[in-house]
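Format notes (please read before filing issues)

Several people have asked whether sequences and structure tokens are stored in separate files. They are not. Every record keeps both together, in the order shown below: the sequence lines, then the token lines. Line labels are part of the format and must not be stripped during preprocessing.
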Amino acid sequence: MVERAKVIALFPGQGAFDGAALAAAYREYPQIKRVFEEIDTVSREFFSRDLSKVLFGDVTPEMEKLLADDAWVSQLAIYGSSLAAWQILADSGAEADVLVGHSLGEIAALVAAQAFSVADGARIVAHRVQVIERQGLAPGRMAALSADGDRVRALIALIGDELLSVATENHDTQTVVSGPRDAMEKALAVSKQLGISTADINSPFPFHTPILAPAAPVFAGLVGKLDQRPLRTPVYSPVLGRYYEPDDALGELLAEHFVKPVRFSAAVRHLHGEGRELRFVEVGGKAVLTKLVGKVLGSGARPATWSTLSLGGDGKLGLAGALADLGTPAKLDDGKAKALAAVFAPDASAAEFAEFWAAFGGQLVGLGKERLAEFRALRAEGTGQAAPPAAAGTGPKAVVERGAVADAIRSIYAAALEYPEEVFTEDVLLEAELGVDSVKQVELLTRVSEHYGLPPRDTGFRLVEIDTMAKVVDFFVANLGDGAAELDVPQEKTATELPAEQAAVERGAVADAIRSIYAAALEYPEEVFTEDVLLEAELGVDSVKQVELLTRVSEHYGLPPRDTGFRLVEIDTMAKVVDFFVTNLESGAVPVAA
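Then the structure lines:
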């Protein structure tokens, strides 16, 4: 019998929040609402506010907005996202062999292992914030450096500040530093001189540094008063470098997180060294830790990984894939087996169908959830089925009733942005008044095109020219009869204008040009853009910035962008960016919107 792979659940820490993904999950999975309602009882108890009203209002918040609010908001949002994703997985029958938390994520991991209730876990996070704020400690900062731990420790020794320390060792080319602002500024200046790239960490406090030492015993005393229960699932701590044990005083050990570093890379190597094939699922916002696992173990290991509260290039939640592959619905009793067999397999006995369900039920549930989400989206747009594609350029131009088109577009925009329909007046400015940036506008225009079965084209359209709802409506009214909505901004050259000799592309020259463009735009030294560097996880280049950079490269080569056929998540390293452009240069059209 082949031993099954060990499933490792990773609970992320600072910065691990994806507002759009959480909002999408909130609409589909009732567990999101239930978990955050429980957290609301704690946020009201400590801070007299409901966290849910911040996260699930008319406008979907992202990390930058949460950090601009009180410190507890971002911390409880990250904690709640992980616990909600875990609850969805658990309700689907998914099981993990080991739980691993990264910094703040360790609190969520312990709650998932049932050491604390969801509410008491939220109280731990709230205490963590309050004791730091009440100590009146010196302000600090955290940043990731593209160097290994030994090199960074040598750099810290040069600065000579005892409060400056290594906070996290993620892998051999990424180490996080934490400390006082003035010492951090010196460290970052020295890093720049040494050609070490840096990226700020989205955190309200400088965790894992001696700055927080005065707050640790106060925090331990408060957590020690909470009801601690036995762990139901093993939890490995990258801070302690070991598994939690039954007689551990969790309050005291969690207090050590204030000053001790997170050795994530060492934890991954330890788990890998225990034997058995490993499968990693990141339980929470974004998909950073699973990528770091690949960096730690190297290309030879190629562990299977899943994300949860993140959106892929196709706009789908990572949860769908995780549930399909990891979900194992509970064993069917005879009554349920007979009922389901009667619908899906009338020729199968209850016993046979129960056996089939045990083997493939998880995949069926995941597929069913995905199809149900697609059906609900179509129904929300006013139709129970996808519109058939229109044949472009055939037949007479259709006579279109503008009012009906306007109503349909308002409905689609309202559903996608979670705004009330009445805000979409004829003269409302989409970006200036509603905050809908160009990337989101392209996505919305694509949704409307799909609703009407209109294929997008990549020429003859300037996004800046349809900045109000009236212009959006007029645009589609004019194009509906043609069967083609032109959705992208044309560049200087089209595919047909590219010279024939451009077909032969020298990869090295393309790589050099792209490194130069990225370095100039991000103000990083060119040498940080190695082939395998992770653009978001290591250099802090978010998806919006990546689209901007891809557009710059397209403009450099005179290539027009398109809005289809491309998933941003698939080109997360410099090597993939270079290969992407090398492959597409011959065609003269590089899609840049995901």
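For reference, the curators noted about this record: The chain is about 45% helix and 10% strand. The two ends are 43 Å apart (CA to CA).
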